[in-house]
Amino acid sequence: MDVSATEISAPTQAQPHNTNDCETVRAILARTGDKWSVLIVKMMGSGPQRFSALRRGITGISQRMLTLTLRNLERDGLVLRTVTPSTPPRVDYELTRLGHSLWIIMESFGQWAIAHRSEIETARARFDARNH
Description:
Layout lengths: L18 H14 L2 H10 L4 E2 H7 L5 H13 L3 E6 L5 E6 L1 H19 L1 H14 L2
Antiparallel strand pairs: 1-3, 2-3
Helix pairs in contact: 2-5
């Protein structure tokens, strides 16, 4: 079953505040919303990636941080790691169905940010002018 934009749209009615739900969302956002996870998921949106391709494609990420982030994404069920026996071993990473559903949300958010960049910059400039 594919996830469509209509399935991830905002609820039509505000839900009552639930502290347990907030903690759940906070914990998941902390893992999936950090800059390295976002960039890794973004790169994998185009298909499986080798570790070296991810390392080259994500400016500033260390080998250790890439390894840790990939492990965490794999642990959360967002990324599948496949080892092909060879010399040296070939390791590929790809999004799972769950990971792809996250990519859809991240892609939509990125498009929203780009579409509204000038409005946000204008609002920031107006705010800064009032508060300096």
